[in-house]
């Protein structure tokens, strides 16, 4: 690894928005009604930073791999059912030596995107250990989604899609394969999480519960039929 991505100091990290804020908020260039914290987790080099950059800027960070040091975040406001939902997305370092730093942030997250690399069996095998850590450090009702990233690298695939599906089913979490390079399913992953969190916050007792699995399936069918990403 040739260089390092930047990290936040503790002081900077305390600037985060409070969870489940349901009020019209404004800052220099963003308006939002509700804000949530989402964390990206998974082994080093599975593509967490690239998935975040793809979602935030619509671009792919190719070239030399630069490992994240500590933790960093980016904000993105998305529209969910006429509500402006701000996702504050925390990109964590996958390297073992930063684990104690990132553990401290689990508790504040309302959603966790847990990534493995479909070309790395080791990153997939480590998912169980990540889930153990999540159960230890995160909120009990945190939304978890499993993502098999680098789906564009079919020729080097080391983990079958069915293996990812099976593991996700075992833990009762939604699953999809993504590619930060092609963009496939990246937006869908974040939007599904944003919808789930928004529904949890605004849901009336008589309203039917939002079904994240069904939403993902319906969006996938839509994009398959229309040739969309
Ligand atoms: N082909 C392909 N390469 C990817 C994809 N996502 C990431 N990469 C590459 O994989 C390497 C690691 O990506 P990062 O996003 O930096 O990985 P990370 O999980 O943030 O790694 P840490 O910061 O160490 O935790 C880089 O060289 C990326 O260009 C993808 O979807 N497809």
Automatic annotation (TrEMBL):
Q: Which Pfam families would you find in this protein's record?
A: Ras (PF00071)
Give the UniProt subcellular location, in the record's own words. Answer: Membrane
Q: How does it sit in the membrane?
A: Lipid-anchor
Entry keywords, A to Z = GTP-binding, Hydrolase, Lipoprotein, Magnesium, Metal-binding, Nucleotide-binding, Prenylation, Protein transport, Transport
Query: Tell me, what is an example of a GO biological process annotation in this record?
Result: protein transport
Segments spanning the bilayer are none
* Annotated EC: 3.6.5.2
Q: Which GO terms describe its molecular function?
A: G protein activity; GTP binding; metal ion binding
Q: Quickly give the catalysed reaction.
A: GTP + H2O = GDP + phosphate + H(+)
Which PROSITE patterns would you find in this protein's record?
A: RAB, RAS, RHO
> Does Hydrolase count among this protein's keywords?
yes
Q: Which cofactor does it need?
A: Mg(2+)
EC class, as a word, reads hydrolase
Query: Does Coiled coil appear among the keywords?
Result: no
Task: Identify one Gene Ontology CC term for this UniProt entry.
Answer: membrane
Name the family: Belongs to the small GTPase superfamily. Rab family.
Name of protein: small monomeric GTPase
Gene name for this UniProt entry: RAB37
